[in-house]
Amino acid sequence: MNILVLNCGSSSLKYQLLNMDTETLLVKGLCERIGIDGFLKHERGDQVYEANLPMPDHEAAVKIVLDALLDAEHGVLKSMDEIHAVGHRVVHGGEQFSDSILIDEEVEHVIHKCGDLAPLHNPSNLVGIRACKHIMPNVPQVAVFDTAFHSSMPKKAYLYAIPYEYYEKHKIRKYGFHGTSHKYVSMRAAELLNKPYDELKIITCHLGNGASICAVDCGRSVDTSMGMTPLEGLIMGTRSGDIDPAVIPFIMQKGHLTVQETIDLLNKKSGVLGVSGVSSDFRDIGAAAAEGNEQAQAALDSYWYRVARYIGSYTASMNGVDAIVFTAGVGENHIQTREEVCKYLTYLGVDVDTAKNDVRGKEVDFSKDGAKVRTLVIPTNEELVIARDTKRIVSN
Fold first, then answer.
1. pTM of the complete model beyond 0.85
2. What is the fold of 195-377?
3. Is the CB of residue 262 less than 8 Å from the CB of residue 251?
4. What biological processes does GO assign it (predicted)?
5. Helix runs in 324-395, H state only
6. Residue 396 burial (CB count, 10 A)
């Protein structure tokens, strides 16, 4: 079974085609600058094909992707009939969806309604779904939600301490994100440790430009750092993370900002970018800190501290921890971040082997032999989770 996985952004489209009989990646690629001029990067093994192509909308981008898959030189398919299903990443499923689901008109309607909760993501996800539906009307489409893995959170973890009517009427609560990533790396950790998934307490740290931490207790998400939107939680690349709510009107007043300008400031101009004044890229911040830039060092110190603080709180929420997993761009590749975070955690039984930790983008248990709590690097594979769920839904 060949499954096409799509992840639609406002002006981009990431894709992978996987053979799910062997769970083999056949091709992957990216369409950028949709609605502007259009750029395609298409990769088959070591072969990379790039082209500037007109992409006035997402439907045009989907057609370009399909043409690339069928191309005699760059493609891997002989006909469209070899695509058996399409799996779509959808950011927000609200309370309605606790699992992936076959897309019909009612599912599309709910995704649209959840656009209020994820205005930067769900509308784009829906555009991609409708484009595929129009071009491939007979191919099953499956929605895989970022929020679904966290639907197992208990009410004590997801409620906000505001008047309850706002939850009842408007569903204001914590939902969490990066669910496919947290699910994949926690399951993979159990495999690497050779222990039953449903007997482990695992804390997964998805540390990229967007970042979140999840407490996975016996295979179930019981808490996570992102909230109703991806703005809550950790300090991130450009997002503020946790902040005193009273700071928001104070910023608006002092800076003469509108609501939207303030939201943009917290989402796009804050985080390690805002504190360092240098960049949202840890390589740039690290280089500046090494040269004596105090703001850059403060950004790193604050980031490491916040990650460690969340790990500590989630250890308490599960009454213990067996393994801590680092994943995503920073988690997989920034050696110093893992080292500095783990320095806070020796009281738990974390004991790091610095030689084993000297790795980027590869699976490794970098704990010392005999460490009570295992520390692992596991590159995430959200597309594989989407493809697995799509195969399961379509097969059933």
1. yes
2. Nucleotidyltransferase; domain 5 (3.30.420)
3. yes
4. acetate metabolic process; acetyl-CoA biosynthetic process
5. 328-333, 335-343, 382-395
6. 6
User: Which residue among 81, 99, 146, 353 is the active-site one?
Assistant: 146
Active site residue 301: no
Question: What's the CA gap between 120 and 126, in Å, rounded?
Answer: 12
Taking 90 as the threshold, does the pLDDT of residue 57 lie above it?
A: no
CATH architecture of 2-145: 2-Layer Sandwich (3.30)
Sign of CA pseudo-dihedral 287, 289, 293, 297: positive
Binding site listing for Mg(2+):
7, 382
**Binding site: which residues?**
7, 14, 89, 206-210, 281-283, 329-333, 382
Q: Pick the more confident residue, 124 or 379.
A: 379
CATH 3.30.420.40 boundaries in the chain:
2-145, 195-377
Contacts of residue 337, defined as CB under 8 A and 6 or more positions apart, other chains included, come to 207, 282, 300, 303, 304, 307, 326, 330, 331
Chain position carrying tokens 């222990």: 195
Q: pLDDT tens, 253-278?
A: 999 999 999 999 998 899 999 999 99
> Binding site residues for ATP, as ranges?
14, 206-210, 281-283, 329-333
